[in-house]
Amino acid sequence: MMVLMIIGTAIYANADTYNPRKREFRGAWIQCVNGQFIGMSTQKMQQTLSYQLDELQKDGVNAIFFQVRAECDALYKSDIEPWSRFLTGKQGQAPSPMWDPLQWMIDECHRRGMELHAWINPYRAKTKTTRALHLSHRLMKFPSSVFAYEGQFILNPGQPRNREYIISVVNDIVTRYDIDGIHMDDYFYPYPVAGKEIPDDRDFKQYNNGITDRAEWRRDNVNMFVKECSESIHKIKPWVKFGISPFGIYRNKRAGVEVGSNTNGTQNYDDLYADILLWVNNGWVDYTVPQLYWEIGHKAADYQTLIGWWNRYASKRPLFIGEDVERTVKAADLNNPNINQMPAKFALHQQQQNVQGTVLWYAKAAVDNIGNYGTMLRTNYWRYPALQPRMPFIDSKAPKKPKKLAVIWTADGPVLFWTNPKAKKWGDEVKKSVVYRFKKGEKINLEDPSKIVGITPETMLRLPYEGGKQKYTYVVTSLDRLSNESKGAKKKISL
Fold first, then answer.
1. Domain coordinates in residue numbering, the chain
2. What is the mean pLDDT of residues 94-110?
3. How far is the C-alpha of 493 from the C-alpha of 440, rounded, in Å?
4. In this predicted structure, what is the pLDDT of residue 15?
5. Rounded CA gap, 65 and 46, in Å?
6. CB of 284 within 8 A of CB of 227?
7. Is 11 a residue whose pLDDT tops 60?
8. What is the pLDDT of residues 268-298, one digit of tens each?
């Protein structure tokens, strides 16, 4: 059992006794908008990404959110939007030699048994640092479809044509790429700046649909987009997950606000016009990842307060927590200033019944092992492989178990082979297999993640040979696209 120590309001765990879960979403964001890839050759970028994926795999990560659309542009081959300057340095300029970063990342992630979620920013049309736009860019073709706000250009959510346009971009990605999810971050209406008004008077008059309150109208614009986008994704490919990572505060609790947290900061509902709870409760999203980037004890937005709030109110869809790696390791534990807040935060995760995973902001911080964060993941918190949380509201039926388990002796030692069952429809298709190992006399317990020796897209696994003196039972199960797990097929082996 995990040892919890509770002193005052802080809770932390002894990392050595932390119990990893068998099913847990373990994601990481890889962003382009910070410019980390600008000027890199194709070979250098692939080497950089390969290294990051290898290290993240060692850390236990099983899902990547890869940013492919930062400002109505593309880090993939698109006939709708121009190549991103965050890839080549100039918007509209194709990479040379030609390659498709999204397709490459899908292949590399799937080869490692990871999910790949294509991360897009829906409404941002131009960042503050972009100086030139390609002629094919949305703003250049339809200048009246955007508004300027604090150095950025935003696709106006109040115009129905923009909603249709963004969904067409999403549909294109979903149709052409074997992604596991579409992911959107926290940018809907822009973050408010004091003294700056959103210039949508004309749109409110033209498209208000009888709604007289402007804030309600803005929320309705975003609600319609989220609902229609979700429906469109699942119509094309029912298994593609649709997830959003909102800002960490839904609403601050105050007079007249029944569902609010004891916080004091920017609010999704009131300031960004993003009604996250409506999306969750209506099933318009398949998962949420609130960005809880603050520390335990933060005066305006206490991490412990917020994780408890999201656990209570956003439980109708899988809930994962967005973690700021750097801020976590730079903040001292409230009761033991000699350690950082990583143990306390992971303890809070296990305490919350509805929290089913974590997403790291950002991937490179874990790869660089800031504050020993990556080491702690791979040696303690995520030391065993994990299956994705189930999503029975999409598909609840498990595939059939593997067949024809056999050990073949090769020049490199023994290899366990098996055959996947045939599939009649997408829900039956086996995408990965889980391999467990039990010593002679051990009880077969497929709920014990410490017995997992591999989660692989292959139908084979190399086995460690120990002179033929040890007897083991290997159990192989099938996983479908939604991580429903079959019954196990067994094979006794002497190694």
1. 4-381, 403-494
2. 97
3. 10
4. 53
5. 16
6. yes
7. no
8. 999 999 999 999 999 999 999 999 999 999 9
Torsion sign across C-alpha atoms 286, 380, 376, 7: positive
Give yes or no for residue 13 having a pLDDT over 60: no
CA 467 centroid distance within chain = 42
One-letter-per-residue 3-state SS of the chain: CCCEEEECCEEEECHHHCCCCCECEEEEEECCCCCCCCCCCHHHHHHHHHHHHHHHHHHCCCEEEEEEECCCCECCCCCCCCECHHHHCCCCCCCCCCCCHHHHHHHHHHHCCCEEEEEECCCEEECCCCCCCCCCCHHHHCHHHEEEECCEEEECCCCHHHHHHHHHHHHHHHHHCCCCEEEECCCCCCCCCCCCCCCCHHHHHHHCCCCCCHHHHHHHHHHHHHHHHHHHHHHHCCCCEEEECCECCCCECCCCCCCCECCCCCCHHHHHCCCHHHHHHCCCCCEECCECCCCCCCCCCCHHHHHHHHHHHCCCCCEEEEEEHHHHHHCECCCCCCCECHHHHHHHHHHCCCEEEEEEECHHHHHCCHHHHHHHHHHHHCCCCCECCCCCCCCCCCCCCCEEEEEEEECCEEEEEEECCCCCCHHHCCCEEEEEEEECCCCCCCCCHHHEEEEECCCEEECCCCCCCCEEEEEEEEECCCCCECCCEEEEEEC
Q: Work out the number of other CB atoms within 10 angstroms of the CB of residue 89.
A: 13
Residue 481 near residue 395 (C-beta atoms within 8 A): yes
Residue 41 and residue 87: Cα distance in Å, rounded?
9
Residue 170: φ, ψ to 5°: -60, -45
Q: Which is higher by pLDDT, 8 or 80?
A: 80
CATH 3.40.50.11540 fits 4-381, yes or no: no
Q: Which fold has domain 403-494?
A: Immunoglobulin-like (2.60.40)
| Locus of tokens 């596991």 | 180
Give me the residue label for tokens 């790429």: 177
pTM above 0.90, yes or no: yes
Q: In the structure encoding, which two tokens stand for residue 421, read together?
A: 């069952």
**Alpha-carbon Rg of the chain, whole angstroms?**
24
* Distance from chain centroid for Cα 138: 27
For residue 333, the one-letter residue type is D
Find all residues with CB under 8 Å of 74, minimum gap 6, and list them: 68, 80, 81, 82, 83, 84
